[in-house]
Amino acid sequence: MVLADLGFDSASGMAGYAPGTIADTPRHVLPQLSLHDTMVCLKRLAPDELDLALRRKVFPLVWSPEPELFVCSGESAFAFAVKQGLRCIAQVERETFHEAVRRTHAEELLAEATDGLRLARPEFSAYRRFTGPQAAVGVLLTVMLAAGLLLSPSLVITVCGWVLGLFFLSLIGFRALALFSNVSPEYSGERPIPDAQSLPVYTVLVPLFRETAVLEKLISALACLRYPNEKLDIKLILEEDDWHMRRAVASFDLPGHFDVIVVPCGHPQTKPRALNFALHFAKGELLTIYDAEDVPDPDQLLVAENAFAKAGPALACVQASLTFHNPNENWLTRQFAIEYGVLFDLLLPELANEGLPLPLGGTSNHFRVAALRDAGGWDAWNVTEDADLGLRFSRMGYETGTIDSRTYEEANCRLRNWIKQRARWLKGFLHTWLVHMRDLPRLRAELGLSGMWALQAYTAGVFVSALLYPPLTLAAIWQVFVNGSSLPGLGIERQLAASLCLAVFLTGYGLAIAAGRRALRRQGIEGWWLTLLTMPAYWMLMFVAAWLALWQFVTQPHHWNKTEHGISSMTRRTTLHN
C-alpha cells in the first residue's frame, strides 16, 4: 500500500527504477511519505532498525527479506544513506517524522528515559531515597541521639561537637587541595586545524524549559561553535506542555543541523529525564550538554574532541570550566563567582590529576557516547544527575578529566532564585550520597579509600556543612568569647570541643579566603576583599538553603526547582566570533 501511494507498482516493487538511479536521485525530488505511512513503517521496525531511525532518521520501507529500500528525513539523513549505500526512495518531513515517532514509540521511549537505570541497575537509582538497612541505621541513630539528650545532654553535645569538628576538619583538608594545587586542566586548548571529514559527529543537547528570555542569545551562541555543520547534531529539548517555548522555537528558521525534540509529559519532570529521552535520538560519537543561558568558547567542541582523540576509550567525560558573564553585578554574584572559580579552576583539575571522582557540572561536560550509554545515561530521579554520573563513571572504571575551555553562564543575582537553585543542589547531594553508600564493601573496592573520601567531601560533606556549620560555629564563638570566663567550670572535654569548633571555623575561613583569592587571580580579578571577608554571610545563606533542601527531600524528593534565567541586568561584553 505504501509503495502504491508513492507511485510505485506494489507488485513489481521498483519496476522502472534501475538500482543505480535510486541512490543518485536528488533528495528534493523524492516523493513525500505521509504521517500515516510513516507510522506504519515505524511500527514494523525491529529494535536495531528503530535505533537507526531515531539516531539517523533513516528507516527501511521494503524488506526482501532484508531491508532493501529506505526512507530518509532531512539532508544529513540522505547523505548518511548515500554514504552507507542505502537506497532511499522516499523522504519524510522532519516534523512529520517526530510526530510519527511520538504516536508510535513515545510511551516506550519515555519509559526507558524515566526508569531505564532504575530497572537495569536499581542500586544506582535515587528512585528510592534509602534502602531498608539505611533507614534502620537512621532510625537507630535518631533514637540514640534523643535518648542521650534526655539522659545526659552535656555528654551528647560534647561528643557531637568532637565528631562534627573532626569531620569538618577532614573536609578542610579536602579543600586544601584547591589552595595548594598547581595543576591546570589536563587537556589544553591547543588544537591543530582538523580535517572536517576526520572529525566525529558531535551531538549537543540543550534542555529548555520556560527559557524564552534567553532563546535568541542561545541560538546565536550555538551558531558560533567552530565545528563543521555537517558533523553537528544540535538537539533543542522541549517539554510537551511548555507551549510558550515550543512557539518561540518554532518562530526561528533553524539550520538543518538543529533538531527539536519534544519530551512527552510525565513524572518526574527533571532535566535528566529530558536528556535521557533525547539520547535516543543522538547520532554523535561525542556529546555535550549546554544550558539555556550558556555561551561556550567557540572552539570548545574541538578542544574536547582533541582530548578524546589523545586519550584511550577509558576516558568517558571531560569537564570544561564554568564561569559567569555577570560576576560583578552584586555581592551575591561575586560570592558565586568565587565559589565557581575555586571549584572549576582549582579543585576539579586537582581531583582529575589524582584520579579521584569528579563532581561534574550540569553543563559543558563532554561525553564519549558509548561510555555514557554503558553507564546507563542519567538518573531521572536524581536532581544532581551530574555529580551522580561522575561517581558512577569512576565506579565503573572510566576516567574523567578537565579541559582548558570556558563556558560563560549567568550568575544568580536574586536571592530567592539562588536559594531555590542551591536547595536543589543540596538535596541532590543528599540523594547521591545515599545512593552510593548503599554497599560500602563494593564502594571501597570500586573507589578505594581516597575515592570514598572524595565522595564524602563533596556530597554529605557539603550538605552537612551547610546544614550545621554556621550554627555550630556561632555556638563555639559564643562559648569561647561570651562565656569565656566560665570555661574552667565546663570541664576539659567541653572546653576542647568548643575550641575545636572555633579552630575549625578559623582554619576553614582562612583557607576559603586564600583559595578564593587564588581563584580570582586566575581569572584576572584583583581586589574583592570585602567579598572575601564576608564569606561567612554567604555560608549562612547556604544554611537556609540546606534546611529547605532537607524539607524538600522529605516532602518533594524528586521535584526540580526551576532556576530562572535572563534576569541579570548585565549583558556579556565578550564578542562572539564565527
Chart the SSEs and their pairings.
Layout: H1 2-5, H2 19-24, H3 35-43, H4 47-56, E1 58-63, E2 67-72, H5 75-84, E3 87-91, H6 94-120, H7 132-151, H8 153-180, E4 202-207, H9 215-223, E5 232-239, H10 243-250, E6 258-263, H11 271-279, E7 286-289, E8 295-296, H12 300-310, E9 315-324, H13 331-353, E10 365-368, H14 369-374, H15 385-395, E11 399-409, H16 415-436, H17 440-482, H18 492-522, H19 529-533, H20 535-555
Parallel strand pairs: 2-3, 4-5, 4-7, 5-6, 9-11
Antiparallel strand pairs: 1-2, 7-10, 8-11, 9-10
Helix pairs in contact: 3-6, 6-11, 7-8, 8-13, 8-17, 8-18, 13-18, 15-16, 16-17, 16-20, 17-18, 17-20
Short description:
Helices cover 54% and strands 12% of the residues. It has two domains: 2-101, no CATH class; 125-578, Spore Coat Polysaccharide Biosynthesis Protein SpsA, Chain A (Alpha-Beta Complex), CATH 3.90.550.10. It contains 20 helices and eleven strands.
Description:
This protein starts with a helix and ends in a 23-residue tail after the last helix. The relative contact order is 0.11. The protein is 54% helix and 12% strand. It has 2 domains: 2-101, no CATH class; 125-578, Spore Coat Polysaccharide Biosynthesis Protein SpsA, Chain A. The chain is of the alpha/beta class. The longest helix has 43 residues, at 440-482.
Question: Which keywords apply here?
Answer:
alpha/beta, 578 residues, eight-stranded mixed β-sheet, Spore Coat Polysaccharide Biosynthesis Protein SpsA, Chain A, elongated, disordered C terminus, 11 strands, 54% helix, single chain
Q: Provide the structure class.
A: alpha/beta
Cα Rg: 27 Å
CATH class group of the largest domain = Alpha Beta
Q: What is the CATH superfamily of the largest domain?
A: Spore Coat Polysaccharide Biosynthesis Protein SpsA, Chain A
Helix content: 40-55%
Detail the poorly predicted runs.
9-24, 485-489, 572-578
What is the CATH fold-level name of the largest domain? Spore Coat Polysaccharide Biosynthesis Protein SpsA, Chain A
Main sheet: strand order: 6-5-4-7-10-9-11-8
**Could you give a short account of the major beta sheet?**
8 strands, mixed
